[in-house]
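In this supplementary section we document a worked example of the pipeline. Step one takes a protein sequence of length 446 as its only input; no multiple sequence alignment statistics are reported here. Step two produces a three-dimensional model, which step three serialises into structure tokens for compact storage. The input and output of this example are shown verbatim.
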Amino acid sequence: MKQIPLFPPLLGQLDCHELLASLLALFADSAVYCVDQRQNILYWSPAMERLTGLPAQEVVTKPCLPDYAIDVGHLDEGNQMVNLVCPNGDNVCMKKSVQSLRDPDGNIVGGIGLLMACGPIGSQDTLKTIKKNSNQNFYGIISRSPAMQAVFQIIENAAETTATVLVRGESGSGKELVARAIHQLSTRRNAPFLAINCAALSSSLLESELFGHVRGAFTGAVKDHQGLFQRAHGGTLFLDEVAELPLDLQAKLLRVIQERNFIPVGGDRSVSVDVRLVAASHRSLREQVKKGEFREDLMYRLRVVPIFLPALRERREDISLLLWHFIQLHNGENLRKIDKIDPLAMRLLLDYPWPGNVRELHNVIEYAFAVGRGTTLKMSELPPEFREPAVSVEAPAATKLRLSGEDEATAIRLALQQSNGSVGHAGDLLGMSRATLWRKRKRYGL
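The serialised model returned by step three reads:
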């Protein structure tokens, strides 16, 4: 009997990189990951992001995380049972299937792993069930706040449509993560997701980066350049800080939204594109319109589905959750493993106002890992602003705030700002005990 070759000659003519990329794209909704021989992550599917709560951009090129039971060890092929700890703390029994990757000489150069539920979840749509059961993780956005759960529902609903979304939130609050979640939930998930900060480039550079240019359009344009709109065709383009877009580029952006085409810089022919836009800003576009700095017609085109992200200080129940999320992330780098936070350090972290939001919190954890050692995060390992109160405890009586004739919530907010978030110092300014101040903060949602 004639034996049929495992791989027909035709496969040998295909580009192996293109073939692997295409196969991985087909498994985007499966918990698939890829590592090199040193256990550094090379690929992290969107489904792995949902399962673990770790965005791909935070784990790719970093060591495989043993806490999530996805370490393939010595890349032995076959199946094994593992217990995965989900972001909400639930234990889920998973079956891990691993295949080694070898070079032409037969040496192991990496491996591909697949996680499948085999225990308590037991649903065909494993990842969706995990996401629904874990009210603390949504496509890499970590939160247990009721306000954020409402945001998650809007994201899910908006992703099912082609509507343009405008995300409003302070710097560091996670606006790009919202855009990525919309992209991953949409039918465009296998197409490109590209992002640009509209405040980071000059007007001329921004126009070229968005719309591209033709050869000879300006000095230094030695060849044609495809802009982000062309490169994001079929996918999603995230425009961060869109309020900073110059007025002349606002007109060009409006044309793309209305006509679905544009003319590259120096070109004479229009280019048709199919791109889903998600814009973001820390400013109110309505206020920018009133100032004459933003086109009203463009505002309405961008603001079809507005999403408002609360600041971290407005969802303080998330601080501890995020602290341990980022600690767990850095524990996987094997430089230091933290399993405890000193009570004094935790009090400072919980009382801090976090003006830089989630990004600042992540930076504080990075700082602690860089400057400290040992398994306990200590107060001395926090950045200087945590150890140097802005207001002295013995503040002169003349500087103390008086609540008579002044809105109490406003007074408390101002005191917290003046005391750099220290509850004890704010209480001294207001003439309140710590317990009274905590009770009033809870009442006013501060």
